[in-house]
Description:
single chain; alpha/beta; Rossmann fold; 5 helices; 5 strands
Amino acid sequence: MKQIALFPGSFDxxxxxxEDIVLRGLKxxxxxxxxxxxxxxxxxxxxEIDYMEQKINETFKDIPEVSVIVYSExxxxxxxxxxxxxxxxxxxxxxxxxxxxxxxxxxxxxxxELETIFLITSPELAAxxxxxxxxxxxxxxxxDKYIPYTL
Length: 151
């Protein structure tokens, strides 16, 4: 049976760290669906969601095992609809673990068949953070080395 993982996030923006998790995840899963969601904790996106969908598709254009969707529902419900057996997440540090652990437990409660797989961020990408990248960009800094596409 084909193993499908859902890689959800707001991806505002999608970074080289995110790309690294997807590429490494392909060693574990047959297919990865990058799912751009709306984060209810954030009032407004910095990069438009359609633009980010286009850029992520561009990043993986030569890798047919990766697809990109936009969604606005519970991640556990989406995983069921897409026959995903796992949620793929990256962890940079213990703060990420605390946050992601709580989410994974709720997702598991909502969908008993759903596992969350955590990959530790590659050391050279551990400092890459979407919030910091947005600030650098907002104030005119060059973010090319932090993102896998051209703005």
